[in-house]
Structures are given as C-alpha cells and as structure tokens.
Write a structure and sequence with these properties.
0% helix, mainly beta
Length: 116
C-alpha cells in the first residue's frame, strides 16, 4: 500500500513562496502520474499541476508561470514550488499518485494560507 505524506504548507504573505513536498512510502518510479490538487472552502477540488513518469507537466492556467512541479524518483518525492502567491491560492493542497492501472493514491492534505 502506497502512502503519501504532504508537508510544507503554512501561512505566507501575498507575493511570498512556499515549497510543498509529497513523500511516498513506496517507489514512485512506477507511478505514471503524480500531481497536486487543491480545494478552497466552498469550492470543488481542482487540478493544480501534474507530472508524468516522462516528466511532462501540466498546470492550471491560474498557476502557470508561478508554480513548478518536479519529481525526484531517487527520493520518492514530488515537489510543488509556489512563487508569487496570491490570496486566491489559499486552499488545502492534496498530493496524488496514479499507478499504471489507473488507481489513485491520495495524501491527507496540507493547508496553504496566503494573506493579503
């Protein structure tokens, strides 16, 4: 059973930066896709960024140019570098991993709060 543990969330002022980490209990080498979703109060969960095993990336339009996703297979960790944060980035951020048969694993979430 693969477990995902997020860290790095917190409170930051607008314009600041945070780096989220998602550490897995197993190897991520076999995971086709890993990424980050977020959910703000009263809103649906939305995809923020994802990265494939071939390191192709996709980003939500709202974070392009500000967020960068990366993966370190040797450390079984995925990162989300978030720069130029805005109050509208405030949400709980969830890490996910999709294996070769399409099964998704989820982390417990980490809170990101951006003050204006």
């Amino acid at each position: 059973q693969v477990q995902l543990v997020e860290s790095g969330g917190g409170l930051v002022q607008a314009g600041g930066s945070l780096r989220l980490s998602c550490a897995t209990s197993g190897s991520i080498f076999s995971m086709n896709t890993m990424g980050w979703y977020r959910q703000a109060p009263g809103k649906q969960r939305e995809l923020v960024a994802r990265i494939t095993s071939g390191r192709s990336t996709n980003y939500a339009d709202s974070v392009k140019g500000r967020f960068t996703i990366s993966r370190d297979n040797a450390k079984n960790t995925v990162y989300l570098q978030m720069n130029s944060l805005k109050p509208e980035d405030t949400a709980v951020y969830y890490c996910y991993a999709r294996n070769s048969i399409g099964y998704d694993y989820w982390g417990q979430g980490t809170q990101v709060t951006v003050s204006s």
